[in-house]
Amino acid sequence: MTISESDLPGVGKKFEIELGDGEEMIVVIHNTGKREVFRRRDPDADSEKAFEFSDDLARTIGSIIEGAYFQPVEPDTQETTLPGGILLEWYELPPGSPLVGETLESADIGNRTGLAVVAIQRGDEVLESPDAGTILREGDTLIGVGTPENCEAFEEILTE
Amino acid sequence: MALLDVGVMFAAVAVAGAVANRLGQSVIPAYILVGMLLGEFVLGRFALPVIGTAYVPETEFISLGAELGIVFLLFFLGLEFNLDRLLARRGPIGTAGTIDLANFGVGLVLGWLVFGAFLPAFLIAGIVYISSSAVITKSLIDLGWIANDEAEPMLGTLVYEDLFIAVYLSVASALVLGGGDVAAAAVDVGIALAFIAGLFAVVRFGTPLFDRLVATDNREFVALRAAAAVVFVAGAALALGVSEAVAAFFVGMAFSATDRVHTIETVLEPVRDLFAAVFFFWIGLVTDPALFADVAALVALAVVVTTPTKVVTGYLAGRAFDLDVRRSTRVGLGMTTRGEFSLIIATVAVTGANAGSFDPALAGTINAFAVGYVLVMAVLGTTLMGYSAPFESVATSWLDRGGADGSGASG
């Protein structure tokens, strides 16, 4: 991965990112905050401008590419993505999670996020169809079913 | 009525800028032309129906606004000037910039042949030497060349020129205001150079001070303090008889090392654009197109001589950066654009004439030459950049006969 950075006096900074096969992506960050993204098909070709973003938009796009905006799902097996784009996801309760010590009823995950908790993995045992009074503990792995949006909403309440 | 004059001025430059932009041309010639049209030398010579003779006079506000335009243009140049960056690439930039100095020599010879005296030749040399940072940078962005390898030698050469012009302007001011006798002006030049050295020391060691000055999150205060610093220092410099433009450049350089440099750029950029437009308008206002007839031959000569020389030096600058023939040709074509600094140099002569130390007729001639030359070169340079393809093919077929010589884009 070769990335070269150069200054453009009076304009800003230029980053040239080699993508392999001689193709390059060139990002020009203007002092004004404007970003321009160019594509260069081979070293002798001219750069073709592909996009232009404002500072705010560029940061958002950057975080999308980084995966901070939406975590791509890398299913261990094919079965985790159910027909219709429904996901089956495993979430471990991290230390300090606000859900620790709540019951399934008081945590109200279904109404708050739309994610249905179908099972809880605790150590070696699995509580399937856990009832509303089940108290969540640190280290529990919740197995939930929902749309990507439901999963995203749940990830937020998991750590907030 | 002064407020109405200023309103007419801003309306005129706004329209001129929009028209130039539509035509894909640089706005600078448009601002100058509209200033000329509305001034006493064009509009003032015609009696209009109903209102009689009306034109935009050179009010104190406009001439002061023009001065602020120079100050802010140079301030921004300093703000974006990074000495460490220059030193880091000093090899190729030094080579490219030194080759480019040949244009100064050409101007000196040209000026000497026409005027037969050192001082006007020295001013002509500066006018034809300095390429336009503003126009070239904007064209680079508009054409998308900014992402190509040709951007670096062009911007690098411009940085070298900027540093040269800072020293040059202080010497030129000293010579012009000192009465033009080189021997007698030696003291003034010494003072000017000492002043530069002093400013340089301030830049080198005064950064913490400048940092503290703008260490606030209040953008309004940042704008006020930065503007206060640059205008105050520039004004003081002028009062001491040294170049206000150079002082502004160094104040900008001092701020360039602070943490707030981006904020300063953001808040003062509109101020710079506004007053720079006033400066170009003012240049047009004080230029009598009737003088063009006298300098037309000189302008034509300068265009014919200094366009090819810039192409050649630019081409060699590109080669110094290891670019191939095609890209080096682009560097050469782009560097031909002259603009704001040539005009700032011409104002040195005008200032000298106003101060009574420089022959007013000669100042008028030099100013008319600079305006005519910039009008041609700004349009020509922008056009050459926009239609570079045929030149590139010709250059490649002539100079690249051995096929690709392997020196291509640096990956």
UniProtKB/TrEMBL annotation, chain A:
Residues 76-160 form the RCK C-terminal domain. Pfam families: KhtT_N, TrkA_C. It comes from the Archaea. InterPro entries: AAE_transporter (IPR050144), KhtT (IPR026278), KhtT-like_N (IPR058776), RCK_C (IPR006037), RCK_C_sf (IPR036721). GO terms for molecular function: monoatomic cation transmembrane transporter activity. GO terms for biological process: potassium ion transport. This is Cation:proton antiporter regulatory subunit.
From TrEMBL, chain B:
Keywords: Membrane, Transmembrane, Transmembrane helix, Transport. It comes from the Archaea. The keyword Lipid metabolism does not apply. Its main location: membrane. One of its GO terms (biological process) is proton transmembrane transport. One of its GO terms (cellular component) is membrane. It is found in: Membrane. GO terms for molecular function: antiporter activity. The chain crosses the membrane at residues 30-55, 61-83, 104-130, 158-178, 185-206, 226-253, 298-318, 339-358, 364-387. It is a multi-pass membrane protein. Residues 12-382 form the Cation/H+ exchanger transmembrane domain. Belongs to the monovalent cation:proton antiporter 2 (CPA2) transporter (TC 2.A.37) family. This is Cation:proton antiporter. It comes from Halorubrum ruber. The lineage of its organism: Archaea, Methanobacteriati, Methanobacteriota, Stenosarchaea group, Halobacteria.
